[in-house]
Amino acid sequence: MQIEKVRDMSKIFEGIPAGSWVMLSRDDERVLAYSPDFDTAVRMASEKGDDDPVITRVPPSDGGMLFL
């Protein structure tokens, strides 16, 4: 198994409340939508024309996040 490089996503999540569901573009460069409610975030991303976003959640401020 090959592990990809760890990426600091703190800048892209800046200003998004902890615990929010985040829908990212497939290149992980743009936030398409976010909401504390999963279904709302998915709907918002879909309304922007993206039905296959990268889905993640902003961790609590005392937590960390690892993308593989």
Extract low-pLDDT stretches.
none
Overall 3D form: globular
Give the termini distance in whole angstroms: 11 Å
The total strand number stands at 3
Strand % is 15-25%
Radius of gyration: 12 Å
Q: What topology, given as strand order, has the largest sheet?
A: 2-1-3
Kindly report the average pLDDT value.
Answer: 85
**How many domain modules?**
1
Order of helices and strands: EEHE
Total helical segments: 1
**Percent in helix:** 10-25%
Structural class: alpha+beta
How would a crystallographer describe the biggest sheet?
Answer: 3 strands, antiparallel
Characterise this structure.
- It is a single chain.
- With 68 residues, this protein is an alpha+beta fold.
- It has one domain.
- Strands 2-1-3 form a three-stranded antiparallel beta sheet.
Give a quick summary of the entry.
By secondary structure, the chain is of the alpha+beta class.
Any chance you could write out the topology, listing elements then pairs?
Elements: E1 21-24, E2 31-35, H1 38-47, E3 54-57
Antiparallel strand pairs: 1-2, 1-3
